[in-house]
Amino acid sequence: MSVVCVNSCGWLLDSCSLIDEGLQRCVSYCDGLDKPTHFRCCFKREYFNTVRPHVQIQQNTDISTSTAKHSDGEHAKIELQTRKKRKRKRRDLNTGELDANIYHGKIRLVVLEGSLALLEAGRQCGYLTEVLTTPPSESMPSHECRLAALCDMAKQLPLTDESLMAPVQTLNRDGLDPSVDLFSNITENPFNCAYEVTLMKEKYFLPPRSRFLLSDITRMHPLVNSGDKYDLIVLDPPWENKSVKRSNRYSSLPSSQLKQLPVPALAAPECLVVTWVTNRAKHLRFIKEELYPFWAVEVLAEWLWVKVTRTGEFVFPLDSPHKKPYEVLVLGRHRSGTDHTVRSPAAEELPEQRLLISIPSVLHSQKPSLSAVLKPYISPEPKCLELFARSLQCDWTSWGNEVIKFQHSSYFTRERAEEPSTTSETAIKQ
Ligand SMILES: C[S@@+](CC[C@H](N)C(=O)[O-])C[C@H]1O[C@@H](n2cnc3c(N)ncnc32)[C@H](O)[C@@H]1O
Q1: Mean per-residue pLDDT of the chain
Q2: Dist CA 5 CA 14 (whole Å)
Q3: Of all atoms in ligand 1, which is nearest to the CA of residue 216?
Q4: Distance from C-alpha of 266 to C-alpha of 222, rounded to nearest angstrom
Q5: Residue 10 belongs to what H/E stretch?
Q6: Which atom of ligand 1 is nearest to the CA of 147?
Q7: The whole model's pTM is what?
Q8: What is d(CA 125, CA 128) in angstroms, rounded to the nearest whole number?
Q9: Which of 401, 405, 407 to mutate to test the pocket of ligand 1 (most atoms within 8 A of CB)?
């Protein structure tokens, strides 16, 4: 039940089940086995175990932090910093903050009222719980990801003929050829089941019929040269902001560089382009006024991802002057020809406003998959592409300098499964 509830305001999503789709049947020839092992995988549930809001506002709007992790000393420090910030903001809001306030004023009722019925339905069906059965997770083991650094090194190498011609390297029944070049070729799992493969001495799961390119933004040629055109392109750029810079989680890109993404070359006519954006009015304006017009994408809708805890509370107070419990998605269509009224066959009209509600992962910036909710708005057998991805999806092509990060086996639990009685699962897609 990856879509838990749906109504005219939007969807309540179970992001973790969305990740598990396609991992019910996994095959592995790792560890030099002659015979494959069969098992099913689940993304570890503790990554989605947000049980309490990160900050709670008490009466008289006195702020006190309430995350389980903070000691009293940390509480006091955060409280003091928050007060200082609030004092400054009351005196002199800068243009960005003023813009953000205006935006918030416009959408706060949409979030508040739109969430009510979906959250209630989520409680009724038992997905959102009042009584907590699992204690909050303490520390989460995390695998050290060196993929971006490797892409950085790979971009210094001269371009090979293969990468210019863009062959797709395909997994065979025994796994991947160890000599494959992941940085200059698209790698594909053509089978109808997931595969466990060893890449650079680490184990990763490749969902059925998924393809990926692991590269820096300056090395996207294989995607363009493959000649594939996509009906849906979702991108989650590494926007420049202080929190990403401070956390040193991944490197960011200036807006001017985002314009160089080959979106027009990758977009099929009427391609739906969806961009995730942080709550900075400057970035939202940039997408709507510069980026989309530059790519010939017409802005059609702005949806909101609302983040809630397992009990259905917003993860930050809705009116918090700092972090908001929502993020924005800007949706538009690539208008390549002159006739702007042509719609993709069987695609419904895109609604201007929708809410996607889900429990966020504790992994920084991990977004819910949009494949289920966007289905009605694209053609029946669409080609889908995710840019700046950190995970793979069945039937999608994904690109980024950490594109297989969350496919690492350490993020999953596995259970043994029966061997398939037929060979249909290990059949190659038609
Ligand atoms: C906001 S995150 C994407 C998060 C992803 N949507 C998820 O749900 O996990 C942005 C990604 O862009 C990647 N990135 C940053 N600079 C890049 C570059 N020059 N080339 C390719 N990818 C880059 C980062 O490493 C990071 O993985």
Answers
A1: 85
A2: 9
A3: 20
A4: 11
A5: strand 10-13
A6: 25
A7: 0.88
A8: 8
A9: 401
Burial 114-146 (b: 16+ CB within 10 A, else e): bbeebbebbeeeebbeeeeeeebbeeeeeeebe
Helix (H/G/I), strand (E/B), else coil: 257: helix
Q: 411 CB less than 6 Å from ligand 1?
A: no
**Short-list 298, 243, 242, 245, CA closest to 270:** 298
CA distance 198 to 134: 33
Ligand 1 contact, 286 CB (< 6 A): no
Is 405 buried (19+), middle (13-18) or exposed (0-12) by CB count in 10 A?
buried
Tokens of 364: 């920084």
Chain position carrying tokens 């390119």: 213
**CA distance linking residue 353 with residue 304, whole number of Å:** 8
CB of 333 sitting under 6 A from ligand 1: no
Does the C-beta of 403 come closer than 6 Å to ligand 1?
A: no
- DSSP characters over 276-337: EE-S-HHHHHHIIIIIHHHTTEEEEEEEEEEEB-TTS-BSS-TT-SS--SEEEEEEEEE--S
Confidence tier at 31 by pLDDT (50, 70, 90): confident
CA atoms within 13 A on the CB side of 376: 6
Q: Tokens at residue 75, please?
A: 């509480």
Torsion of CA 332, 334, 340, 341, to 10 degrees: -60
Residue 87 pLDDT greater than 90, yes or no: no
Amino acid identity of 243? S
CA–CA dist 29, 203 (Å, integer)? 11
The pLDDT of residue 247: 67
Is 253 near ligand 1, meaning CB less than 6 Å away? yes
Report which protein residue has its CA nearest ligand 1's atom 11.
Answer: 388
**What is the percent of the chain where pLDDT is above 70?**
80
E strand segments, 92-167: none
pLDDT band at 321 (very low <50, low <70, confident <90, very high): confident
CA of 237 to the centre of ligand 1 (A): 6
Query: How far is Cα 184 from Cα 151, in angstroms, rounded to an integer?
Result: 10
Q: Would you say the CB of residue 250 lies under 6 angstroms from ligand 1?
A: yes
